[in-house]
Design goal:
InterPro entries: TLDc_dom. By secondary structure, this protein is an alpha+beta fold. It contains 4 helices and 10 strands. Strands 1, 2, 3, 4, 5, 6, 7, 8, 9 and 10 form a 10-stranded antiparallel sheet that branches.
């Protein structure tokens, strides 16, 4: 019987494409946040550049403006929120945020916390309540009347609750939170 020998291999931990550009353009994200998020992103996003599509500090705080900025987008998007307690969390959406009568999206969608600690909440398979856009709010994840992430039309007030879609904990320190900054990143 021959002894099998594993060939040595080199593991290269490369930074995501354009990391310095992402951090430079963001009011929220640090390099460590981007690195952690990239480990969780679906394969179809690899090799694409992150592009800031919407930011409350640059474009104002209006859900209608956010929808307009994303109207020509066909890539997945990442929503990142910094709240009044300096906690950072958000969602990766398989499809861009848009007004919709029903929930849409796929199981690629997930919720995450970035600061004070990193944690990712993937789809449980329990339901398909991924993304819902209304004119007066948007919601990510749901079940039993609770949304994993909900934000109002002024992109100022939000709520996070455990939900069946992602089996997540509350993303913010308290159920209700105030948005200090909200960014939406697309892939191009």
């Amino acid at each position: 019987m021959e002894e099998s020998r594993d060939k040595p291999f080199l593991v290269v931990d490369r930074d995501p494409e354009g990391l310095s550009n992402i951090v430079e353009n963001s009011q929220i994200l640090e390099a460590s946040h981007v690195r952690e998020l990239c480990k969780e992103l679906p394969p179809r996003t690899v090799g694409y550049t992150w592009q800031l599509a919407y930011s409350t500090s640059r474009h104002g705080a209006s859900l209608k403006s956010l929808y307009r900025k994303l109207s020509g987008t066909d890539s997945p998007v990442i929503i990142v929120i910094k709240d009044a307690l300096d906690e950072i969390f958000g969602a990766f959406l398989s499809h861009p945020l848009r007004p919709s009568e029903m929930f849409y999206g796929t199981g690629e969608t997930f919720l995450f916390m970035l600061h004070p600690r990193f944690k990712c909440f993937k789809w449980t398979g329990e339901n398909s309540f991924f993304i819902k856009g209304d004119l007066d709010c948007f919601a990510i994840g749901g079940g039993s009347g609770h949304f994993g992430l909900w934000v109002d039309e002024n992109l100022y007030l939000g709520r996070s609750s455990p939900c069946y879609t992602f089996n997540n904990c509350c993303l913010s320190e308290t159920d209700d939170f105030r948005v200090m900054e909200l960014e939406v990143w697309k892939f191009s």
